[in-house]
């Protein structure tokens, strides 16, 4: 039943593994510490009672025996502090293990997810979910959970003590506590109970946009688009502000009522004491009432502290539950299913059979009943406007996603029936956005085949036209690139990516805008590298620069997720259709650039 009511707390204990008992021990010790922390107040009251009694009797020596109460107060205070220290040691050890396990389990799970998941979830958002939420849970288990346990145990002891001395004064102290609970429920319940989920989502979005903004600062400065580029980041900040300020405004009246009620206990306590005193009979009753009033005056601050601890601990509990839910959402992402009886591809052919695919969260089909075939050793090029489905088609071959309709076959076998490692061995990629690790150039290229020798890496680098890059670097292949090392241009990054693909020597090559960031010199070098990379291989090539695909065996023109034209370069030009129009525009752009340059030179002369 507890798991149904508090699944997040149950999940926390699961993450703690064999150290979950430390969390339980920490909570028990924190509860005992809380109870012991109230005993010194009772001892102080006994000391005051003995001193007042001695003063009334006119013999101060009668208060000599009150010294042992003072020592008991010190002893219980020290014992309470010690138990709380041990409780925190236990809770911290359990919290560290919980946070570590959360991060490990999340990272182990993430590496099993298809690559398409990462194109839909920015790195900033994933870092926030895993790192920050694990840290938030760690803080809750280490500090807030022991305090919450103490805050839960304390009311029981408080209620007992409130009625031990004078039930009438006890009710006067208890009534503000009951009213404060009402205000606390107004802050933590209702619509505010769901606040934390929206707040954390807004925080993740703001974190993601901040990362993207910082990464894009060089482009922003070059094109002087500061205000425009700040738009998404500013919108994320405004969304976060809406949640943060909205919650603060929503809580202002309940929080004011909470604080006024707790701190206004004496408004009831003093008049009640005066009324009771007027009805007292004899000096003894008056003295007893005065002593009881002193006790409740000493004890009221404990009640205030208790309720404040409950308020802050409840807020942290909401945050921790939300953190666990977000980690759990990542863990609930399903890896692509693999066949129990995997098959081996017969050759390097690729076939799309009536394939349809729709991205999660959208209604429009990215691919709509697409069919085509790439025979082994042939090259096919995909062209079309942005968003027409080219990259989506390419991403289905290595199972970045699974099709919803139809099938993608590699070597005559549905990719869903090929083991993941076997499928990856069949395909080499060169993406538009090439990522290099913060490591040596040697290890960056060898990532495609870790067991490759240095000579094999050098041979692949040479075939990818990387010799000039290696020669000019201070340590050649052993030069560190990326953060803290040497930076390469976009075109040079693409050539390193081609070297990886050549080293892998896979029978199927997927080139997605491989010349996108290349200048004229790098594009020429990349074209030379293509010749070595694609010789005798099955190639699927995506390009906007039509000059790079003229020699493809077949060119498919995509539009709105469908194949609208098919043929080789000359056939498509002769059809005078979409491709012919694209080719004409491409030729015009080249001519325009040259003509513009010549015109400017003539005018200058």
From TrEMBL:
InterPro entries named among the record's database cross-references: AAA+_ATPase, ABC1_TM_dom, ABC1_TM_sf, ABC_transporter-like_ATP-bd, P-loop_NTPase, Type_1_exporter
Domain called ABC transmembrane type-1: residue spans: 24-319
Localisation per UniProt entry: Cell membrane
Keywords: ATP-binding, Hydrolase, Membrane, Nucleotide-binding, Transmembrane, Transmembrane helix, Transport
One GO location term (cellular component): plasma membrane
Keyword Transmembrane: yes
Keyword Protein biosynthesis: no
Broad enzyme group: hydrolase
All copies of domain ABC transporter, residue ranges: 350-585
Domain of life: Bacteria
GO MF annotations, alphabetized: ABC-type transporter activity; ATP binding; ATP hydrolysis activity; ATPase-coupled lipid transmembrane transporter activity
EC id: 3.6.3.-
Segments traversing the membrane: 21-48, 68-95, 145-161, 167-184, 262-281, 293-312
Membrane topology: Multi-pass membrane protein
PANTHER family membership: ABC TRANSPORTER, ATP-BINDING TRANSMEMBRANE PROTEIN, ATP-BINDING CASSETTE SUB-FAMILY B
Name of the protein described by the UniProt record: Iron import ATP-binding/permease protein IrtA
Source species: Dorea longicatena
């Amino acid at each position: 039943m507890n798991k149904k009511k508090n699944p997040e707390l149950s999940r926390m204990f699961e993450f703690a593994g064999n150290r979950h008992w430390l969390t339980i021990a920490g909570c028990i010790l924190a509860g005992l510490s809380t109870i012991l922390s109230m005993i010194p107040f009772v001892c102080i009251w006994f000391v005051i009672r003995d001193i007042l009694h001695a003063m009334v009797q006119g013999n101060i020596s009668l208060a000599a025996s009150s010294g042992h109460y003072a020592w008991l107060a010190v002893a219980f205070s020290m014992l309470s502090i010690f138990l709380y220290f041990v409780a925190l040691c236990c809770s911290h050890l359990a919290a560290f293990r919980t946070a570590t396990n959360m991060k490990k389990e999340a990272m182990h799970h993430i590496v099993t997810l298809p690559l398409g998941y990462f194109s839909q979830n920015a790195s900033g958002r994933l870092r926030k979910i895993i790192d920050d939420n694990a840290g938030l849970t760690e803080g809750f288990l280490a500090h807030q959970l022991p305090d919450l346990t103490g805050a839960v145990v304390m009311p029981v002891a408080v209620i007992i003590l409130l009625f031990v001395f004078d039930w009438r004064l006890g009710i006067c102290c208890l009534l503000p506590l009951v009213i404060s609970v009402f205000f606390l429920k107004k802050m933590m319940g209702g619509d505010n109970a769901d606040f934390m989920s929206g707040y954390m989502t807004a925080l993740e979005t703001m974190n993601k946009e901040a990362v993207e903004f910082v990464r894009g600062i060089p482009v922003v400065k070059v094109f002087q688009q500061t205000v425009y580029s700040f738009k998404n980041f500013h919108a994320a900040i405004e969304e976060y502000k809406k949640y943060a300020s909205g919650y603060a405004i929503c809580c202002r009246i309940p929080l004011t009522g909470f604080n006024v009620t707790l701190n206004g206990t004496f408004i009831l306590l003093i008049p009640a004491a005066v009324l009771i005193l007027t009805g007292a009979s004899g000096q003894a009753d008056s003295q007893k009432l005065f002593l009881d009033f002193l006790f409740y005056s000493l004890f009221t601050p404990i009640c205030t502290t208790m309720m404040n601890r409950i308020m802050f601990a409840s807020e942290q509990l909401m945050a921790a539950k939300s953190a666990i839910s977000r980690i759990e959402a990542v863990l609930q992402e399903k890896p692509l299913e693999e066949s129990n009886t995997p098959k081996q591809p017969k050759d390097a052919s690729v076939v799309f059979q009536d394939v349809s695919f729709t991205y999660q969260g959208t209604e429009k089909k990215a691919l709509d009943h697409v069919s085509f075939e790439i025979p082994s050793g042939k090259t096919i090029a995909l062209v079309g406007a942005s968003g027409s489905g080219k990259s989506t088609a390419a991403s289905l071959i290595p199972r970045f996603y699974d099709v919803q309709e139809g099938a993608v076959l590699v070597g005559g076998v549905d990719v869903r029936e090929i083991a993941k490692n076997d499928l990856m061995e069949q395909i080499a990629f060169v993406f538009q956005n090439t990522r290099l690790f913060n490591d040596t150039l040697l290890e960056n290229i060898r990532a495609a085949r870790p067991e490759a020798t240095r000579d094999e890496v050098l041979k692949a680098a040479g075939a990818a036209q990387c010799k000039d890059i290696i020669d000019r670097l201070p340590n050649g292949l052993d030069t560190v690139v990326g953060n803290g090392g040497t930076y390469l241009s976009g075109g040079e990054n693409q050539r390193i990516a081609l070297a990886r693909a050549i080293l892998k020597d896979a029978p199927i090559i997927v080139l997605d805008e491989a010349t996108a960031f290349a200048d004229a010199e790098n594009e020429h070098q990349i074209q030379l590298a293509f010749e070595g990379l694609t010789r005798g291989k099955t190639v699927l090539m995506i390009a906007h620069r039509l000059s790079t695909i003229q020699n493809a065996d077949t060119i498919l023109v995509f539009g709105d997720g469908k194949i609208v034209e098919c043929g080789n370069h000359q056939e498509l030009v002769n059809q005078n259709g979409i491709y012919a129009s694209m080719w004409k525009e491409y030729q015009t752009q080249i001519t325009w650039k040259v003509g513009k340059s010549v015109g400017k030179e003539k005018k200058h002369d």
